[in-house]
Specification:
OHCU_decarboxylase_sf, 3% strand, globular, 48% helix, 11 helices, mainly alpha, UraD-like, two-stranded antiparallel sheet, purine metabolism
Length: 256
């Protein structure tokens, strides 16, 4: 483990103390330069507008506040934003569970889905299902068949919701939180590692420490902006109409 950065005039810390004093992944995200934060967030969702919006609303006091802001940004994705995000979803290898018949059916359904909707199939799985390759495979095939019956507008709504859930999982890994989130079955099948899964290529708290420049994510001595985002979102309203007011509150136009 690399030593934490320290004040040149301060005495060197022991390795244990340095490890304890290391900023949390969420703190690093909060104080990262805008371009670096946006790049990390793009690994969670491939929409540039989504990443810019989530980065612009920093700092976040908790992972839950980060997830609330990410949800609001996801609700505001345009069809173009969604298409951009889906274009960045990588196809994963199929698990070797399930037998030839299931795999043949899954490949055929996946090809049919891409031909009909023009983008990769994504599915967020709960932790229990994701931990069982056979169950994940069955659910993926069943979901593919069901969603092939949708028209384009119906499937866009379903896909956007699946993407939102997958982004939450990736954000939890990035920020080092413990919030419960869904895992992604992956566009080409279920049970294999994906960008949002624990064995995949998406961001994680460990990636945040080791894969990026330590200097780029070193927190400043004093934050350059005040305030924080809070997850107090009005209920019973169209989520697209909610707006962050820049002072730590979500508001609905026309409401006091």
């Amino acid at each position: 483990m690399r030593p934490s950065h320290h004040d040149p005039g301060a005495p060197l810390l022991s390795s244990d103390t340095a490890s304890d004093a290391r900023p949390s992944p969420l703190t690093r995200l909060n104080h990262a330069p805008p371009a670096a934060a946006e790049a990390a967030l793009l690994a969670c969702c491939g929409s540039h507008r989504w990443a810019r919006r989530v980065a612009a609303h920093r700092p976040y006091p908790t992972v839950e506040a980060l997830l609330a802001a990410a949800d609001e940004a996801a609700y505001d994705l345009t069809p173009g934003d969604l298409a951009e995000a889906l274009a960045g979803e990588a196809t994963t290898a199929l698990t070797d569970r399930g037998g030839l018949t299931v795999h043949t059916a899954l490949r055929a359904a996946h090809a049919h889905y891409e031909a009909k909707f023009g983008h990769a199939f994504i599915l967020a799985l709960d932790e229990h299902t994701a931990a069982d390759p056979g169950a994940a495979l069955d659910q993926t095939l069943a979901s593919l068949r069901e969603r092939l019956g949708h028209d384009e507008d119906e499937e866009r709504v379903v896909t956007a919701e699946q993407l939102r859930r997958i982004c939450r999982t990736r954000l939890v890994r990035l920020a080092g939180g413990t919030a419960r989130s869904a895992r992604c079955a992956g566009p080409a099948g279920a049970g294999g590692p994906t960008a949002s899964d624990s064995g995949g290529t998406g961001p994680s708290s460990e990636d945040w420490h080791t894969d990026h420049s330590e200097r780029a994510f070193e927190p400043p001595r004093s934050p350059d902006r005040a305030g924080s985002i809070t997850p107090g979102l009005p209920r019973g309203t169209d989520p697209v109409s909610r707006r962050y007011d820049g002072r730590g509150r979500w508001t609905v136009p026309g409401r006091a």
